[in-house]
Amino acid sequence: MPLAYVKPEEAFEVRIQCTEEQIQRHCDAAPENDRRDFDNRGGLQVPVYHVYKGTNFPDPLTFWYTLDLCEVDGYEFDIRTLPTWRHDTNALFHEDILQRALDRGLARIEGKELIISKDESVSLEVEAYRRIRGKI
């Protein structure tokens, strides 16, 4: 008997701030998209999905997520690679870890891909933050 595809479970949502140009691109991308998708300050809620071991739906990986509902491998990311990750946190706070990285400009979302900043000044800021927190 063939297995049926099951969509990944949404883990949480994060908010990204969009420019007027990004809002217009979003609205032009599909007929069902419009300005009602955004809050009154230009923010958009973006769903973040669990990633699973192989096709084992009931067994999500603890630290791995994707922004792509179709689970393309290139869009998966490990929450521990974010500069705002601290080893004393647990899975209940992954939403906050990602949201802090987005809010501070340490990461950004482009399409369905999470881009983590490789900027040296950002790395120095993160290192200073971790030293203050006693994590280095």
What does this structure look like?
The protein is an alpha+beta fold. The chain has one domain (10-131). The chain has helices at 20-29, 94-103, 120-132, and strands at 10-17, 43-52, 60-66, 76-78, 107-110, 113-116. The chain has a 4-stranded antiparallel β-sheet with strand order 1-2-3-4, with helices on one face. A two-stranded antiparallel sheet has the order 5-6. The longest helix is centred in the C-terminal third of the chain and has 13 residues, at 120-132. The chain is globular. 12% of the residues are buried. The mean pLDDT is 80.
Could you give a quick summary of the protein structure above?
24% of the residues lie in helices and 26% in strands. It has 136 residues and is α+β, with helices and mostly antiparallel strands.
Order of helices and strands: EHEEEHEEH
Largest sheet: 4 strands, antiparallel
Q: Specify the number of helices.
A: 3
Strand order across the largest sheet: 1-2-3-4
Q: Quote the distance from N terminus to C terminus.
A: 52 Å
Which of globular, elongated, flat, extended, rod-shaped describes the shape? globular
Q: Compute the gyration radius: what is it? A: 17 Å
List keywords for this structure.
136 residues; alpha+beta; two-stranded antiparallel sheet; 6 strands
How would the blueprint of this fold be written?
Layout: E1 10-17, H1 20-29, E2 43-52, E3 60-66, E4 76-78, H2 94-103, E5 107-110, E6 113-116, H3 120-132
Antiparallel strand pairs: 1-2, 2-3, 3-4, 5-6
